[in-house]
């Protein structure tokens, strides 16, 4: 008894507020949450593309044999599958990025705010143009 | 005086990388990852691509794409791990792994492109 009293301890910190525990899988419960996480996960596939691009540069630098090996590696069914998934995610990134563009760029023309539709539309038009130019550079038979 | 945060710089890199990635990565990936390997479109030859990457402007483009896309990934993935997994005690580790990865990748890109022969 006495010992307990002598060793009574007082915390100098504020007591912790009650917070209900959120499950690690909270983002699976609703479609908008899942969409949010998928959008964020798209960044992993953006990074994977950078890896593929750098492997291509390295193979090009090492000579035609190394490049042929790199091209065979790209034909591996697992890599093709991974790249299909990657394509889905990078397009998802582009679409979600463009759709929030009007919130990021509030453009005014003659004192009026340009409608969202035109900003999103301009982004898609620019995307098509950029894709065409890059295709022109890369497709040579 | 409040401590200066580097968050605005990191966010700007995330944003710039997001724009760059949104415009160019889908077509690049479609061509290199699917259309060329699966034979939908004839792949460009080694000689042509090699000559293309020899151009300083092309190498600058590839470097900028890698640098910005990796910092875009680092920022976004960091917050995905923060919010998705809620492992607060590991936040510092996540920070260093994400930006460390982006820095390593950028250095690798610089090394490959600078020494491109």
List keywords for this structure.
heterodimer; A: 141 residues; mainly alpha; 3 helical TM bundles of succinate and fumarate reductases; 2 domains; two-stranded antiparallel ribbon; B: 117 residues
Report on the architecture of this protein.
The complex is a heterodimer of chains A (141) and B (117). Chain A is mainly alpha-helical. Chain A folds into two domains: 2-104, 3 helical TM bundles of succinate and fumarate reductases, CATH 1.20.1300; 105-141, no CATH class. In chain A, 70% of the residues lie in helices and 3% in strands. Chain A has five helices and two strands, in the order H-H-H-H-E-E-H. Chain A has helices at residues 2-6, 31-62, 64-74, 77-104, 116-138, and strands at residues 108-109, 112-113. The radius of gyration of chain A is 26 Å and the shape is flat. The mean pLDDT of chain A is 88. Chain B has 117 residues and is mainly α. Chain B has a domain at 67-117. The radius of gyration of chain B is 18 Å and the shape is elongated. The N and C termini of chain B lie far apart (50 Å). In chain B, 31% of the residues are buried. Chains A and B meet through helix 2, helix 3, helix 4 and helix 5 of A and helix 1, helix 2, helix 3 and helix 4 of B.
**H/E element order of chain B:** HHHH
Share of helical residues of chain B: over 70%
Q: Give the topology string of chain A: H per helix, E per strand.
A: HHHHEEH
Tally the helices of chain A: what do you get? 5
Largest interface: A-B, 52 and 57 residues
Q: Percent helix among the residues of chain A?
A: over 70%
